[in-house]
Write a structure and sequence with these properties.
Radius of gyration: 20 Å
Low-confidence stretches: none
Mean pLDDT: 95
Shape: globular
Strand content: under 5%
Structural class: mainly alpha
Largest sheet: none
Distance between the termini: 63 Å
Order of helices and strands: HHHHHHHHHHHHH
Number of helices: 13
Length: about 240
């Protein structure tokens, strides 16, 4: 296996720090990175919290006309530097790119975001026609924004979007955690709307799916934690009158 393939393998395994060591050994400077590895080096920086270096690599990738550079820059803008203006400009250039749309939605969910709700709905409506799971994740993310920031009217919109997401996720263990999360947030929306009966039904379905997910992947601690959270939520709303 050559150094190029080793770097890609380390990246695909999520061994970002090790991949960066290989990068440094083979290509000492960021600028010496081959074009086909530029975005990957940037993502490795991003995943290890080196956001200045990641942004530099995104610029190099963009200059080489690699759309992954824009995707990386969108994630940096959303999660690290929280630059709503830059994020909006990127979305304007790539309105149908699911990775960029999801970065926008992740940022819009935060309390200090100034991104408009109108854009959130536009993104969700475009993603309804998408076939990738990332498109459905985007619909889910948009619904969470409406539930969190839109009051009761937003909760109604969110419930409609979540119903669409559940249809698109389809059946299967690879979407169990997605469906479990959707039912959890549906329960929250029903409670916000004052319908405790539907909130409890949704909460029970969420917990059932989380149990099923843990059985399918018993070593995943995040899934175990989500199951505990779903159980606590169901107990809370079951004791609410």
């Amino acid at each position: 296996m050559n150094e190029h393939d080793e770097i890609i393998e380390l990246y695909n395994k999520g061994s970002y720090a090790e991949a960066l060591k290989s990068f440094k050994s083979e290509y000492p400077s960021d600028e010496s990175t081959p074009l086909e590895l530029t975005a990957i080096r940037g993502w490795c920086y991003y995943r290890t919290g080196k956001f200045v270096e990641a942004k530099n690599m995104s610029t190099l990738a963009i200059l080489s006309n690699d759309v992954n550079g824009w995707r990386l820059l969108a994630q940096i803008s959303a999660r690290a530097i929280k630059d709503d203006k830059l994020l909006a400009e990127i979305l304007k250039e790539f309105p149908n790119d699911s990775a960029i749309c999801n970065a926008y939605l992740i940022r819009a969910l935060e309390d200090d975001s100034t991104l408009p709700m109108e854009d959130v709905l536009d993104i969700a409506l475009r993603m309804i026609n998408g076939d990738e799971i990332s498109d459905t994740n985007g619909i889910n993310n948009a619904a969470r924004i409406f539930e969190r920031k839109g009051g009761k009217a937003g909760a109604v919109t969110a419930l409609g979007l979540w119903d669409i997401a559940l249809v698109k996720y389809e059946e299967g263990t690879n979407t169990l955690h997605h469906r479990a999360a959707v039912w959890f947030w549906k329960s929250k929306a029903y409670k916000l709307l004052g319908n405790l009966e539907l909130a409890r039904i949704a909460g029970k379905e969420s917990l059932r799916l989380w149990y099923e997910q843990v059985r399918a992947d018993p070593d995943n601690q995040e899934f175990k934690n989500k199951t505990v959270g779903a159980k606590q939520w169901l107990e809370e709303i079951s004791n609410t009158t």
